[in-house]
Amino acid sequence: MAVMVDATITEEIMETTALTQVVPDSGLPDSGTTPRGNDRRQAIIEAAAAQLRESGPSGVSHRSVAKRAGCSLSATTYYFKGLDDLLHHAGLHNISLWAARAERVADQVESLSGPLRIEQRVSHLLRATLPAQGPYMGHYLQLIAAGTSAPVEQAYREGRQRLNAAVSRVLEHLGSPVEPEMVIAVVDGAAVTALSEGRDVRATAAQYLTILISAANGLPVPQVVETRST
Q1: Is residue 148 a part of any domain in this protein?
Q2: Of 51, 80, 109, which one is at a domain's C-terminal end?
Q3: Tens place of pLDDT for every residue, the chain, 230 residues?
Q4: pTM for the full model?
Q5: How many domains is the chain built from?
Q6: Does a structural domain hold residue 179?
Q7: Are residues 57 and 121 in the same domain?
Q8: What φ, ψ does residue 6 adopt, rounded to 5°?
Q9: Measuring CA to CA, which residue among 155, 179, 181 is closest to residue 87?
Q10: Pair 155, 163: CB distance under 8 Å
C-alpha cells in the first residue's frame, strides 16, 4: 500500500537530497534546507512556543502545533527528531523572547543620563523582568510546569544566562548593587504571591522590588501595602 506524504515535505526532500546534512544534535536547521523550508520550520517553532506559553508542556503535541501553525501534521515531524526536540526549540524560542525584552530595556536605560528616582529604577527593572500585561496566571503556571518536561527545563536553563546578562546591564547602569538572579527571584516570588492572594501582580512586584533596591542602596525601606487586583 502506497504511503501518502505531504506534498510540501516531498518537495523539500527533493530540494535537499544532494546537499550536505547538518551535524547531528547541533540544534540548527539543515544547511541544505531552503529559505522556504526555514520559514516553515520557524513557523512551527513559534506555534509550539505559543502553545507552550499558554498550556505548558503537556499542551504541546504535533497535532496541536500543526493546527496552530496551519501546516500538515507531517511537517511537524519532518523538521524535528521528535516531540522532545520540538519542545526544546519552543523553550529556546520563549526564553529568547524574554531575554530580548530585557535587552531592549537595557538599551533604553543605557541611553539615559543623570540619576533616577527609586520608582523609575523599579519601573525599568519590572519592564525587563515581567511581561507587559497579563494574564499572568498562565505565564507562571507554564513556568512551573516546565520542570515536568526535561527538554523545556533544559532550554530555559540554557537561555537564562542571556536574560541574566541583560538584567545585569540594567542594574549596572542604574547603580543598583543587586545580582540579576535576586531581582528575577523577587519579581517572580512577588507575582506568585499576588496571584495566590488575589492581589495586583505588577503593584505587588513593584513594592517588593522597591524594598530590595532601597535596602541595597541604603535608602529607607517602605512598608508593604496590599493592592487588590481588579
Answers
A1: yes
A2: 80
A3: 333 344 444 444 333 333 223 333 334 444 336 888 899 999 999 999 999 999 999 999 999 999 999 999 999 999 999 999 999 999 999 999 999 999 999 999 999 988 889 999 999 999 999 998 878 998 999 999 999 999 999 999 999 999 999 999 999 999 889 999 999 999 999 999 999 999 999 999 999 999 999 998 887 777 766 666 66
A4: 0.78
A5: 2
A6: yes
A7: no
A8: -55, 135
A9: 155
A10: no
